[in-house]
Amino acid sequence: ALSVQANAYASHLRQTTINGDASDLEPCGQIGGLLCLGSEIATGAGGQPIRDFLHGGTYAQLNAAATDSAAFGAGLQALYKSAPLGGDNQILLGASYDAGRTAFRATSTVGAMTADRGFEGPGVVIDMPDGTIAPVDVASDNDYVGLYAADIFKPVAAASITVSARYNFSRIALRDRLGQALNGSHDYDRLNPAVGATYDVTEGSTLYAGYAEANRSPTPAEFSCADPKAPCSLTNFFVADPNLKQVVSHTIEAGLRGRSERFSWRAGYFHVDATDDILFAASSIAGRAFFENIGRTTRQGIEASAEVRLGALQLSAGYVYTDAVFGQAITLNSEDNPKADANGQIHVVPGDRLPGIPANTLSVSADYAFDRVWSVGLSGRYADGQFLRGDESNLNPKTRPYVVLDAYARCRLSDRFELFARIENLTDAKYETFGGFSPIDKVPIAEVPNASNPRSLSPAPPLSAYAGVRVSL
User: Fold this and answer.
1) Whole-prediction pTM
2) By percentage, how much of the chain surpasses pLDDT 70?
3) DSSP secondary-structure letter at 85?
4) In the structure, what pLDDT confidence band is assigned to residue 230 with cuts at 50, 70 and 90?
5) Do 60 and 23 touch, CB atoms closer than 8 A?
6) Which residues of 261-292 are buried (b: 16+ CB within 10 A; e: fewer)?
7) What is the 3-state secondary structure (H, E, C) of 203-271?
8) 218 φ, ψ to 5°?
9) In whole angstroms, how far apart are CA 363 and each of 260, 262, 307, 464?
10) How far apart are CA 473 and CA 243, in angstroms?
């Protein structure tokens, strides 16, 4: 009647990155021979002003970062099964601990941008006294503790009721090893209840419904870039340590699912309200941004899937409609958005869609097994266009909808060895997976000398092929 489960884990990540970009530094307007960041004179090591060494050339910036991170944790839970009053009852109790220890270092150097948009020295390290761009050396300690309990009760054979709760406590601490700007410690806790029920309508179909709450504490990166007065770039986080509220979600779901010998299906509705959601918002300083709480957002919709097996042929399909919207009015900076106002701002109203989330997605697949050795398959996916980042007010065209096909084959030589081949984007479709706005006069583009469209789109991977062997020991 009693079972106990436990696990423990440890992992380590070491990563270095180098990223080039157009520099925000430019010749000072009033002081000749020096570089400025906005209205401030740019400085290097020891507070020395950085000279305008290109004398009218285009400046580039090289951002180098190194991360050394360890993660570890453990969990323990016990499940007790009993039968009070003739019904099935299961009681679950558990606890978990997860932790991370991370060291992060970064520097930004300024040099010349070459004709092919590369970086060329001298590579002067930027060290602004206000910390907007400066060397970073910070350590973060993340500790998460969870206590949870659940009672699963079957009052009758066809019905099941689950009542549960989880208490979460988190502590995120930052230690600045070069100064004081990043020092900080933040504690969060919350008790999250949940309730769910299922009912077997027929032998092969089940009705389900549930309500659950959850919370997410901000990450160290979000903490370190949450000050609108000290925004950061995408490649150089950790500039300040103000507070942020934790994100709390409230989820309602309901639906019907079923299964037979050859056919399975599921259809449901979901509604998620997130309070104090966190957005990476553009700063009034060009090329910089910061994290901020933006109030309530809502994601709701329907999802449906089905799978059928017809002898050697297996067909499956899935569809999701997602209505992801802002829940309250906010004003955001987006100076490169052609629909922004005279101050370079956009005005979001309740009901505007969240960027980066397509409304409709559809996936289909077909697998055919010639015998126990050979099988082939074809899969496809469709997605609507999505609004660009920086167009939270939904005033510009979306990215284009797209269809992508993949093909694959398997040859099972034995229970342990399998050959495989896969072709992704079989038709070499041209489509975009992400979009934003970029300044068209910041970087000279020889291929487009008269660029006038600030839409910046990320192309999807082209046709690609893979082949290999899988071995199971």
Assistant:
1) 0.82
2) 92
3) G
4) low
5) yes
6) eeebbbebebebbbbbbbbebbbebebbbbbb
7) CCEEEEEEEEEEEECCCHHHHHCCCCCCCEECCECCCCCCCCCCEEEEEEEEEEEEECCCEEEEEEEEE
8) -60, 155
9) 22, 20, 12, 20
10) 49
